[in-house]
Amino acid sequence: MSHKIALNFEDGVTRFIDTNVGETVADAAYRQGINIPLDCRDGACGACKCFAEAGQYDLGEEYVEDALSEEEAAQGYVLTCQMRVESDCVVRVPASSDVCKTQQANYEAVISAVRQLSDSTIALSIKGEALSKLAFLPGQYVNLKVPGSEQTRAYSFSSLPKDGEVSFLIRNVPGGLMSSFLTGLAKAGDSMTLAGPLGSFYLREIKRPLLLLAGGTGLAPFTAMLEKIANEGSAHPLHLIYGVTNDFDLVEMDRLEALAARIPNFTYSACVANPDSQYPQKGYVTQHIEPKHLNEGEVDIYLCGPPPMVEAVSGYIREQGIQPANFYYEKFAASV
Known about the structure:
The protein contains 7 helices and 18 strands. The chain is an alpha/beta fold. The protein has 3 domains: 3-93, Beta-grasp domain (Ubiquitin-like (UB roll), Roll); 105-198, Beta Barrel (Elongation Factor Tu (Ef-tu), domain 3); 210-331, Nucleotide-binding domain of ferredoxin-NADP reductase (FNR) module (Rossmann fold). The chain has a 6-stranded antiparallel sheet with strand order 11-10-13-8-9-12. Strands 2-1-7-3-5 form a 5-stranded mixed sheet. A hairpin with a 6-residue loop joins β10 (141-145) and β11. The longest helix is centred in the last third of the chain and has 13 residues, at 220-232. It starts with a strand and ends in a 5-residue tail after the last strand.
C-alpha cells in the first residue's frame, strides 16, 4: 500500500510524493526527482534530518545518536534516509525547493463558475483534468495568473479538490486587476493558470482544541480546513470566530451552518465591526474570544486576516497572559 507525503520546503513550496511499501522517504523523493539533502544512506551523518508534522512512521534502529538523538526523535525529528511511513505524512524540509532541485507545480484549468457573493466578495471555481492530480494541505494557497497579463495574485483554496475542481473566495478590490477581470470579463470556459501549492499556513494534526479566527476573505482557508475535519472527524472541540467590516461582507454563512451540522463539536460565531450594523453581534473578533476558547493555553490558534487584525489578536492574547500551545497565522493585504 502506498502513502502520500507532503514535503514542505522552507521557501513555502509544497510537493507531494508517493512512497512504496518499505521505501524510505529519501528514496521515494529521489525517485520522483526531489533531492532531499543527503550525504549518506545509513543514518550516520544527520544531513537528511527533517521534521515530521503529521503521520505515522518507523525510524528503525540503524541510525546513530550523533545523527538523531532520542530527544529529537521524541519531538518529531526524523532522518529521511531511515524513515518509512505507515500513513500519509507531512514532513518539513529545512532547505529551499531550489536546493532540492524541485519547484512549484503549474496547472492549467478553466473557469467553471464565477459568483459575486456580495459587493466585496467573489467566489471563483476552476476545473480541469490537470487538477485531478492537484494535492495541497488545507489552508495553503496558489498563485493565479490574471488572464491577459503576466501578473499573478495569491489566493487560498476555499474547498478541497473534488472531481478536478477547486474554489476560492476573492476580495473584490475596486480597480483591482483580478477583480476587474472576474467582475467584467470572466466567463465559464476561460483558461486560467495556477502555480503551487504554497504556504506554511495549513491544518496540522489536531491534538487539542482549536480556535479559528477569520477576517473577511480570510475565511477561505478555514472552509477548506473544516471540509477536511468534516470528512475525518475530530475528538477535540473547534470554534471559529468570523469577523467582517460591514453586514454585506458576511458570506458563506449557510456553508458554515452546513459544516456545523457535519462536525458535532464545531461551533462558530460572526461579528461585524461597523457600529451601525444590523447584525446581532458587533465589534471586533477579539471582543468575542471567551476564556473557554483559550482553554488556559491548551489550544492551537489559527488566524487569517489583514495585518491590523493579526496584530490586534496577537496583542490581545499577550494581554490575557496566555501562551497558546501553537499560534499559526497568515496576513494578507488586498492587491490591486
